[in-house]
Known about the structure:
Helix content: 40-55%
Oligomer: single chain
Distance between the termini: 110 Å
Number of domains: 1
CATH architecture: Roll
CATH topology: Nuclear Transport Factor 2, Chain: A
Mean pLDDT: 83
Largest sheet: 4 strands, antiparallel
CATH class: Alpha Beta
Radius of gyration: 33 Å
Order of helices and strands: HHEEHHEHEEHEE
Strand order of the largest sheet: 4-5-6-7
Shape: globular
Structural class: alpha+beta
Number of strands: 7
Number of helices: 6
Amino acid sequence: MNMLKKNKHTIKAFALAILIISLLGCKGNNRPKTTENPASATIKVSANQTTDTTKHKQEIQKLIRNVLVWAEDGKRVPDLLPFVINRQDSIVTGFDLSKLQGIDDSLKNTGFFSNEFINNYNQIIQTLARKMENKEIKPFSTGEIPPFGFHTDADPWCDCQDVPYDDENAFSIAANLVDVHIIELNKERGKMYWTWGSLPKNVSPDWRSFTYKFNVIKKDGKWKISYLEGFDVKKS
Length: 236
């Protein structure tokens, strides 16, 4: 009789042990799915970010190429230096600031430039005008290179006098070959620079090392230029 009771206790203990092990096993298998494979979740986020960045870069590259093509067409580009000129001796004596509004409108109508860029351009001209009024910049002949840093011996749109390609429409070709590189970029703003792309094999090393910095801002779902290296008020 004692042996029977002992066996019953042993069976109950054994059954209880099996039940506990089973419960622990079930608990281990009921983990959230999101923690089963964290690596795959990370890859998906990274892939989306890469896709967005690539899309933004392509849009910005198209923008800067369009700006350069537009800049090459002198018929549509406003005169960025609204000089006051003495017609008797062709001497530049100052700037006609009343013309700024018309220039601003021309830049704005392209759809390429933000208000930030246009305001910066205005600041450049106003700074130069003040310096001429204060005699910090002396009058000069229209045949001379202006004695200041903006739009003088180099085209401010590309900071260049020439392009590294030989063709009848070399600049238009060059404009459509520039490559954009990211310094900083998010969904709203970007700091970038561009280089000449698809360069000829025998081109000078200077062309290969050339860079041009610019900034962009997104307004109403569209990227616009907010800064160009050739329009730096600090150099005016």
